[in-house]
Amino acid sequence: MTKKERYDFVIHYFEEHMPDAETELVYDNPYQLLVAVILSAQCTDKRVNMTTPFIFEKYPDIRALSKAAFNELFPLIKSISYPNNKTKHLIGMAQKVVTDFNGKIPMTVPELITLPGVGRKTANVITSVIDQQPNMAVDTHVFRVSKRLGLVPQKLTTPLAVEKELVKNLKPELIHKAHHWLILHGRYVCLARNPKCWECGLQQVCIYFQNLLNKK
């Protein structure tokens, strides 16, 4: 099977079975999504969605958050992983957006990564979800699933390398969708420890599954 055939199969499968894939984070605007994505690092979307309503009630916009005191914000996110750092990041992020971007969330990756708590993955999420830019955020799910399916070479060892390979082989208009396809597939089917291979419709192209069969 050629690389193009593999990609075509995977894309056709997801377009048929997951046509409306989108983030599971709950948000109403770019400010809320940015806060949610920062909080979601090494934390479940479910936990973040339980937490953000209290944050947005107290800090309804970026300017309100920029004036937050650490000891007022921290109690709202103490159930999230790494609450100390994330409290500092959220306040610092909001202050920088206000001072450097006139209170408007920037919408380019180079600008976003200048904000505290925002790395390349977060910047790619924001720009692809809000603006449907052809940016591929590579989290642990995307990294695992893309390698298991054979969409990227096994030898690639960094998220950036995987991101570049996926972007190179996907049509620009599909990249923002493919990000969600791979994440959701990894979250609910292609699990890290006990993947549900026998329920998966991608067995035909999956290198991981073929290796399982060969071991039997």
From TrEMBL:
Cofactor note: Binds 1 [4Fe-4S] cluster.
Cofactor: [4Fe-4S] cluster
Enzyme kind, highest EC tier: lyase
Binding site for [4Fe-4S] cluster: C190, C197, C200, C206
Single GO BP term: base-excision repair, AP site formation
GO molecular function: 4 iron, 4 sulfur cluster binding; class I DNA-(apurinic or apyrimidinic site) endonuclease activity; DNA binding; DNA N-glycosylase activity; metal ion binding
Keywords: 4Fe-4S, DNA damage, DNA repair, DNA-binding, Endonuclease, Glycosidase, Hydrolase, Iron, Iron-sulfur, Lyase, Metal-binding, Nuclease
Keyword Iron-sulfur: yes
Catalytic activity: 2'-deoxyribonucleotide-(2'-deoxyribose 5'-phosphate)-2'-deoxyribonucleotide-DNA = a 3'-end 2'-deoxyribonucleotide-(2,3-dehydro-2,3-deoxyribose 5'-phosphate)-DNA + a 5'-end 5'-phospho-2'-deoxyribonucleoside-DNA + H(+)
Family per similarity comment: Belongs to the Nth/MutY family.
Function noted in UniProt: DNA repair enzyme that has both DNA N-glycosylase activity and AP-lyase activity. The DNA N-glycosylase activity releases various damaged pyrimidines from DNA by cleaving the N-glycosidic bond, leaving an AP (apurinic/apyrimidinic) site. The AP-lyase activity cleaves the phosphodiester bond 3' to the AP site by a beta-elimination, leaving a 3'-terminal unsaturated sugar and a product with a terminal 5'-phosphate.
Name this polypeptide is given: Endonuclease III
Record organism: Niabella ginsenosidivorans
Lineage, highest ranks first: Bacteria, Pseudomonadati, Bacteroidota, Chitinophagia, Chitinophagales
